Amino acid sequence: MKDYELTVVFHPDLEMNLDPAIDKVKKLIDQAGGKITKEENDGKKRLAYTVAGQEFGVYYFIDVALPAEAPAKISSTLNITDEVLRYLLVRVDERKAKFATRRAEKTEKVEAEEDKVTTEKGE
Fold it and tell me: What backbone torsions phi and psi does residue 57 show, to the nearest 5 degrees?
């Protein structure tokens, strides 16, 4: 299984009741044999250009682990799903992910050292 990032732009009218549309995408991932590792709802945003007559869309990000045949199945289904204005399914660059993890660890270490110095000074 390889790691992928799925970005889905939902129809803006679904903003108040997004759960059924998200459940539909999650079910699609489960049926394809994938596992969701992280989800994030980024909310309603203005689109760079009009899509299907809409100027806004609700952005939802999902990190998934998928088997080899799953991306094609998911893409073909999302292409014909009414709730989805656009989607992007890309494979995660492993080197970039490792770099981001190392950077986060270094940042945490520096912040911990700064907190330690601050508490020692009594500030």
Answer: -155, 155
